[in-house]
């Protein structure tokens, strides 16, 4: 349980407390990595350490070689490093002190300090995120002084899709209980709809398609009528109200009206986690993820530390436009078999029209919204600035439950195509030479076909 990780964190905590040289903090650019970086940033700041930090998209061999030449004498990796542990051992560990706080499948344990739940028998894909691991490191450094950082651990876990049916599981569940008990998040059961705190109520209802609400899903007029029939005002002081603006009695009225209308409300009821800043945790993690995908991950650190509402709105709008553009590409090219097609898996070839930062998000949304018919996995492809290809893959949840591990499969394929990659059982990625695209697709398709 959590105590296992705290015990394992002691060597890293002691090293950080006693070290008096320069430190380089390196994090990854998604919501989990930005959250983990923020936790580590505050932990080092409170220790009075001399440090610089950077957030990277991925860490390939050239990146490890670059870090080996940096002036800092200790490198702290968060949400990155386990999947590159052989390279870190080869290029850095002999000359610098290294601490890795990660949750991805590790290649090796190495001679450096390596915190990873897999070494303790926990699945890093769902039991705990890198932000959770780094929070427990901060707690091992100073339990009382760093207890407020726990909220970032839950933002990271949420961004890494580590809630199941709206609830944290594994080690994350213990962290969530601690956060609730200490008042850093609040929790109550309610309608778990998209845009709970950021969208007008009728928009949240019309965007609900799983389950499909006949007459309401994709029908704003029908959604408005449903709300009015429940006796709930859509506006307050001239502005549209969000679901989060309803008091508990109003939300109960809406739930009762939905039940009367024959809708499957039970599947929409989950524990809702609210942060102190008024945001529901799922939506706030999306904002942090947006900063990384937009190439501005340090803005995510700033938002976590300051709750700058102007910056939050700016990044959300910018992200929404980019996602819409990327999804339009998929819809507009659905009949172009050179770009969007199915084998055993679904393939979205974004070429240079979908940026590498957004191909993973497009793959995730396309997997969840049923764009392809009952396929076991989706693979997205995008051209990169260094003339390679970014691969992002997502697997069907049932396939994963039956033993599919995308991270392992993609790691093996990369060895054959001179690429680098890996990841979790449900989501994984790679960077490969452009001329190996068809070989990669064929191997991934064949590997999935064997398991169907």
UniProtKB/TrEMBL annotation:
<feature type="domain" description="DDH">
    <location>
        <begin position="22"/>
        <end position="148"/>
    </location>
</feature>
<dbReference type="InterPro" id="IPR051673">
    <property type="entry name" value="SSDNA_exonuclease_RecJ"/>
</dbReference>
<dbReference type="InterPro" id="IPR048515">
    <property type="entry name" value="DHH_CID"/>
</dbReference>
<dbReference type="Pfam" id="PF01368">
    <property type="entry name" value="DHH"/>
</dbReference>
<protein>
    <submittedName>
        <fullName>Single-stranded DNA-specific exonuclease RecJ</fullName>
    </submittedName>
</protein>
<keyword id="KW-0540">Nuclease</keyword>
<dbReference type="InterPro" id="IPR001667">
    <property type="entry name" value="DDH_dom"/>
</dbReference>
<dbReference type="GO" id="GO:0004527">
    <property type="term" value="F:exonuclease activity"/>
</dbReference>
<feature type="domain" description="DHHA1">
    <location>
        <begin position="376"/>
        <end position="450"/>
    </location>
</feature>
<dbReference type="InterPro" id="IPR038763">
    <property type="entry name" value="DHH_sf"/>
</dbReference>
<dbReference type="Pfam" id="PF02272">
    <property type="entry name" value="DHHA1"/>
</dbReference>
<keyword id="KW-0378">Hydrolase</keyword>
<feature type="domain" description="DHH-CID">
    <location>
        <begin position="193"/>
        <end position="260"/>
    </location>
</feature>
<dbReference type="InterPro" id="IPR003156">
    <property type="entry name" value="DHHA1_dom"/>
</dbReference>
<dbReference type="Pfam" id="PF21763">
    <property type="entry name" value="DHH_CID"/>
</dbReference>
<keyword id="KW-0269">Exonuclease</keyword>
